[in-house]
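Worked Example 4.2. Consider the chain below.
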Amino acid sequence: MNNDYYETLGVARNASPEDIKKSYRRLCRELHPDVAGASPDAEERIKDVNRAYQVLSDPDKRQQYDLGADPLAPGGGEAPFGFSGGAGGFQDLFDTLFTAATGGAAMRGPAPRRTRGRDLLESLTLDLPEAVFGTSRDLTVPTFAHCETCQGTCCAPGTSPRRCQTCGGRGMVSRVVRSLLGDMRTSSPCPDCQGFGSVIDSPCPECAGTGRVRLRVKVAVDVPAGVGTGTRLRIQGHGEAGPGGGPAGDLYIDIRVKAHPDFVRDGDDLHCTLQVPMTAAALGATLTVNTLDGEREVSINPGTAYGEVVTLDGLGVGRGMSGTRGDLRVHIEVQTPTPSSDEERDLLRTLAAMRGEEHPEAKLAHAGGVFSRLKDKLAGR
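Applying the procedure from the previous section yields the following structure tokens:
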């Protein structure tokens, strides 16, 4: 017999109650006859483990032990083999050894027929204007709905479940198993009522006793302004109806936004490219652009260079409930003409002579040029 209870459980002297409990359960599983087999010292070790847990799991007994006294010493009221009715006794050992057989938790009482339904996940593809301004769409969803014939009771009209005679309505049945530790009682779901504690003799013919039927349901989806690809919307209570009349789960909708031929989205802003003749860029002009909000005028200042950006405030993507919007950024693309006649070539030569550009010199662009702006963009500035 090992009288160092901390060493027996394999924990430090300052171990928390939770650590002591975890170590105790681990050792019980390792020393169980189904695992340890015919190990000659398994029975003695489980007795030591149980004694140690009785002391260390009880704050008062642990305090006495830490002060040098053994609460389980002769005269201390020890039960045979340390199996007492309190914490750490036979029932605790029983729960530990057979918790796995009940799905990870000791089962108490019948299982409910009425449970929550599963969540559903659907996808919805939008055009860019729908994502910018928001929209309403109808989505047809295959799901489970409550059975109207039985109203979720699972029984045929005019009937009701009866109490299971096998388990007496407890949902569990017990049996005795002999082991090296003696007779041990195990519990499992009743085979006649499947753990529900009641039996349905006349199941509903419409739903086959499940309380729900499969349907295709049309759901109205209100899409707020500003959604984008990857946005997930949640519509509460529009998932599958639960068995036995249980509450419905939720419906989740993944949004995908199709690419637009003219506009590119960047956060709350939209970007587009406007082709401007060289003469309009040089002299200045006012051009009309088709935006998502209809036609808008864009002012081109004299001397506008290739790559400059004109911002139209408030014509970008909606920002949800705030009511505000991003901007539309118009990128200017100056078109360089290709002379198609001698007259046009003569006019361009005359212009070059007037500007002293007949023999142009190569000059590298400094900060502010197109290449500089490209470097800034690539650097994420």
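The domain at 261-337 is CATH 2.60.260.20 (HSP40/DNAj peptide-binding domain). Confidence is low (pLDDT under 50) at residues 75-107. Compare this with Example 4.1 before moving on.
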